[in-house]
Specification:
The complex is a heterodimer. Chain A is about 45% helix and about 15% strand. In chain B, helix 4 runs antiparallel to helix 5 and helix 6 runs antiparallel to helix 7. The longest helix of chain B has about 35 residues. The chains are: A alpha/beta, B mainly alpha.
Chain lengths: ~700, ~280
């Protein structure tokens, strides 16, 4: 997602998938700002920010994309915030589009001023014309304003009379002054209402110019900052009209290198995929697993040849289907049944019920996709892929964001495919046991052995470690319960009656599946959420009164990194000056990062490095406890081991109190000797009763 | 989806604003075609914009309240109104009341004018009725039904070569992305709360810091949003581009025509009743 204008031909014709996705997501963003600015009083200034997403769209894409986004955002804003919301979106799109186009043509602030003057004149003239037609609304608004001003004037006069009647120092002068203000207030309003079209016109032009300038400033800054943001989009629709036939495919001496990089993303490989076979591809992060997926999905290799009988047919009936890593992004429909048919050519009819029952979601057809767990979402994505009866199905790390239960169900669906479909399955994974059910396994790691693979393991029995009784308790949770949306029809209990104590230097694993309430618990322990019942105390005081004393590392590390560069980020998160190089270097050293990284841009970091930078910022404040939400998600085996070793050392040597929230157990037993199981918001009783739990 | 305001300790007992999530249960209003509700909201919004008189406001308010009763909307669905908003309304009402003006009423020997207060009340009620209208749609419509309904309603635009299907798909995807973005912004906001606050002494430094923070926040939000968009683009490509968006296309039924006739009758009645009474503004 480079922030430069799109280099490919802009051209006419329908929107391409990438353009459509950008338009939709930025429309959602623009609608969100517009709605908040309308329904939250005094948040009107927020609508200024709505110009940035639209400006970005106009800068990077053709005008059709901006128009599509405007329509989508306007409908959403109208649905929630009425005509006011709609007008806010139109306003944002107008100004954002303007600044974006000016930026694209590499013009400066002067152009923005001139263009916005004329644009403001046109826009405001339209508004004046509308008010001229809507006489009744205009009179009502004017009458209401007059009433409030007259009222204020009457109050001023009243005070003036009071002052005249009760002589006190300066009272005559005050009375005269108040009378004068009251008269002038009314006179001013009368004049203003008399010349209303001119007043609105002038005001409209000036305010539109100001807003354009602010939007221009923000857009320029944001674009400057976003230069380093990597493009994470992977798939491109192949432009091939040949008959579809993706398998059997033969890769001969295939090698791939991304443009502008100096090393191969996929080193030379030869392999075959036969019709109907189940092939597993394993390897550590960076070994080229995903690049191999791209080759199979139709991207041209840098060297070598790929032979297949026909076109790849990505997403076409009988072609190639791909299921990717992030469960939420896979699913495009808001209702389960709708997602299965999403994107099928109009007129194609399929048996939605049969497909859903094949992946074990038969009773969920009417459910909202937002309420599904990660594992269910991935099974739904498989159903949508199967709706196309693909000849080749590629599953790329589909289980890495899914809990153990969901993983088992998903693997069951994948290994059962052979019975009902003639689909060749290519399963890319970094879990050892997931490769077991395949007909054949190909390992891409250079070492050739499986040492860098993650083993999954059974849950350890809940334990309550004794031995820390002498230490002071750090976190004390007593009868903590939480309900979202209390008192509304949407009330949903997330936690109930959770009680436990964490001591200084403890390592506690809170284990639970998707939707068990473990993230809510993490937020409560960090003081970000006030529990509806019970108390969560840090050193005897409620945690929500001391936000920041307990550090929390979120699952999405990128959301926690707000500055552009590593040193500025660490300094800002820790609360010292970015010029304090020594402290930055020592903070980085604590998490095992080299000082050379300090000047690196955030968006050039790997997933593991991002997590360490977050930890560096958090630990530099010497938190009372460190909570880590799914710290291992999305990291490969070697990175996971390194991070765990680091945390173990910190806990042992610096007596750091660590609470890990996870659906995984692998490798955590040394860091967290104590395990608590959370199931549907309730702690399962520990098997040993010695101390710890109270 | 809930507004992030719920995380604030001060509003512990308050009910959050819940958007785009229907109240659980079924009713005649829930079962109406989404297009009917969209048309109704459009028609009434336009009506109120042209004829914001007491009669129209009253009729629409009655319509909204009846619909809420039929749809079994509990009182708990309304978000808590913060205290300061009440105070502002009362203050506004008081200043408006002091303005006086016709109509005048003799009350305990005093000659009191209610014109100002009435005008203030009218514009306040108008805003509340408009908000209620939008809320009714949000409380009774499944998000998944909105985009297909827009596609159906926009059919005639196809003759003008307007890409209505593309718009409908973008709308559907935007509605799908909306809760995910809200959740990500919730995390972003929480991450910001966890950071230490810098104490700056000069006003100039504070202003600069504020501007920088703003750019940082926008950039973080946009980076997350664009990443989401890239992934969504991949998912669309993996499905072979756009096509169907609904498994069970819905169409207006008898109930919908009935509902539309009621709306039309209300509109017609308020115009007829309102027009001969120019004294209303």
């Amino acid at each position: 997602m480079s922030a430069s204008p799109a280099t490919e031909p802009r051209g006419a014709g329908p929107l391409r998938p990438g353009e459509l996705a950008q338009a939709s997501v930025l429309a959602a963003l623009c609608a969100a700002t517009a709605i908040v600015s309308i329904i939250v009083p005094f948040a009107g200034a927020l609508s200024l920010l709505g110009t940035v997403p639209m400006g970005l769209l106009a800068y990077r894409y053709r005008i059709r994309v901006t128009i599509t986004a405007t329509v989508a955002a306007a409908v959403i804003a109208f649905l929630i915030a009425g005509l006011g919301g709609l007008m806010t979106v139109v306003h944002s799109a107008y100004i954002g589009g303007l600044t974006g186009v000016v930026k694209r043509h590499r013009r400066g602030t002067g152009t923005v001023l001139v263009v916005s003057f004329f644009a403001g004149a046109v826009f405001t003239a339209a508004a004046v014309a509308a008010l001229a037609i809507l006489t009744r609304l205009r009179h009502l608004i004017f009458d209401a304003i007059t009433a409030n001003v007259d009222g204020a004037a009457a109050v001023l006069r009243g005070i003036g009379r009071f002052a005249t009647a009760h002589p006190f120092p300066y009272s005559p002068r005050i009375a005269v002054g108040l009378d004068w203000s009251a008269d002038h207030l009314k006179w001013l309003l009368g004049e203003a209402l008399h010349y209303w079209p001119w007043l609105i016109l002038a005001n409209g032009i000036v305010s539109l110019m100001i807003v354009s300038l602010i939007g221009w400033w923000a857009l320029s800054r944001v674009l400057e900052r976003m230069r380093g943001v990597p493009d994470v989009h992977k798939l491109d629709a192949p432009l091939d009209n040949a008959p579809i036939g993706p398998v059997p495919v033969r890769l001969d001496q295939v090698r791939f290198r991304y443009p502008h990089t100096d090393r191969d993303a996929l080193s030379t490989i030869s392999l075959d995929v036969h019709a109907g076979e189940h092939l597993a591809i394993t390897g550590a992060n960076g070994s080229g697993k995903t690049t191999l997926m791209l080759m199979l999905a139709g991207r041209e290799p840098t060297s070598g040849t790929i032979d297949r009988p026909g076109a790849v047919g990505l997403g076409r009936l009988g072609g190639t289907a791909v299921v990717m890593q992030h469960p939420e992004s896979q699913v495009l429909g808001t209702r389960v049944a709708d997602d299965v048919v999403w994107g099928l050519p109009p007129g194609t009819s399929i048996d939605v019920g049969r497909l859903l029952s094949e992946v074990g979601l038969d009773s969920h057809a009417e459910r909202d996709t937002g309420s599904l767990s990660g594992g269910e979402l991935q099974r739904l994505a498989v159903a949508a892929a199967l709706a196309r009866e693909p000849a080749l199905l590629i599953a790329d790390e589909v289980t890495s964001m899914v809990d153990q239960q969901g993983r088992d169900a998903l693997l069951g669906v994948l290994s059962g495919l052979k019975q009902q479909h003639r689909t060749a399955l290519v399963h890319i994974t970094h879990y050892n046991n997931e490769a077991d059910s395949a007909d054949r396994t190909i390992n891409l790691s250079d070492s050739g052995d499986n040492t860098d693979m993650v083993d999954t393991m059974a849950a350890p029995i809940a334990t309550a470690a004794a031995g820390h009784d002498s230490d002071a308790p750090v976190l004390e949770l007593a009868g903590v319960g939480h309900e979202y949306g209390s008192g509304t029809p949407w009330a949903k209990a997330a936690l109930s009656d959770v009680s436990f104590v964490v001591h200084q230097g403890d390592g506690v694993l809170i284990h639970g599946g998707n939707g068990s309430g473990k993230s809510t618990l993490a937020w409560i322990m960090a003081g970000l959420t006030v529990p509806t019942t019970g108390s969560c105390l840090l050193d005897g005081r409620p945690t929500y009164e001391q936000v920041g004393a307990v550090a929390l590392s979120f699952q999405a590390a990128r959301l926690q990194l707000m500055r552009s560069r590593v040193d500025v980020e660490v300094a800002s998160a820790a609360g010292f000056s970015a010029k304090d190089d020594d402290r930055v270097v020592s903070a980085l050293a604590v998490v095992g990062l080299d000082s050379a990284l300090a000047k690196r841009r955030i968006d050039q970091l790997s997933g593991g490095q991002m997590r360490r930078v977050v930890l560096a910022g958090l630990l530099a404040r010497s938190p009372r406890a460190l909570i880590l939400d799914e710290p291992l998600a999305g990291l490969d085996a070697a990175t996971q081991r390194g991070l765990l070793r680091l945390l173990e050392e910190l806990r042992r040597e610096k007596e750091l109190t660590v609470v890990v929230i996870s659906h995984d157990f692998a490798g955590l037993e040394d860091l967290c000797p104590r395990t608590l199981h959370l199931n549907n918001g309730v702690l399962e009783p520990a098997t040993t009763t010695a101390g710890g739990l109270r | 989806m809930t507004a992030p305001a719920q995380e604030q300790p001060a509003r512990r007992q308050s009910r959050p604003v819940v958007l785009l999530r229907p109240v659980p249960g079924t009713s005649a209003v829930h079962d109406l075609w989404a297009g009917t509700k969209l048309l109704a909201v459009c028609a009434i919004s336009i009506l109120l914009t042209f004829y914001p008189g007491w009669i129209t406001i009253g009729l629409v308010a009655a319509l909204v309240l009846t619909a809420a009763r039929i749809a079994h909307i509990p009182r708990g669905a309304l978000p808590t109104v913060p205290h300061w908003l009440w105070i502002m309304v009362v203050l506004g009402g008081m200043t408006a009341a002091f303005a006086g003006g016709s109509p005048f009423i003799e009350l305990a020997g005093a000659h009191i004018g209610f014109g100002g207060l009435l005008n203030f009340l009218r514009i306040t009620t108008l805003s509340i009725v408009l908000l209620g209208l939008g809320a009714m749609v949000s409380w009774t419509t499944n998000v998944a039904e909105i985009a297909p309904a827009v596609a159906t309603l926009g059919c005639p635009l196809r003759l003008l070569r307007i890409p209505i299907d593309e718009w409908a798909v973008a709308l559907a995807l935007a509605l799908r992305a909306f809760p995910m973005l809200i959740e990500e912004f919730r995390v972003l906001y929480a991450a910001r709360r966890l950071r230490p606050k810098l104490v700056l002494h000069s006003r100039r430094a504070r202003r600069r810091r504020w501007a920088l923070e703003l750019i940082d926040l926008i950039t973080a939000a946009l980076t997350v949003t664009l990443r989401r968009a890239d992934e969504m683009g991949d998912a669309i490509t993996a499905r072979g581009g756009i096509g169907q968006i609904s498994a069970a296309p819905s169409r207006p039924k008898l109930a919908d025509w009935l509902a539309l006739s009621i709306i039309a009758a209300v509109c017609a009645a308020s115009i007829l009743l309102d027009v001969p009474l120019p004294g209303h503004h």
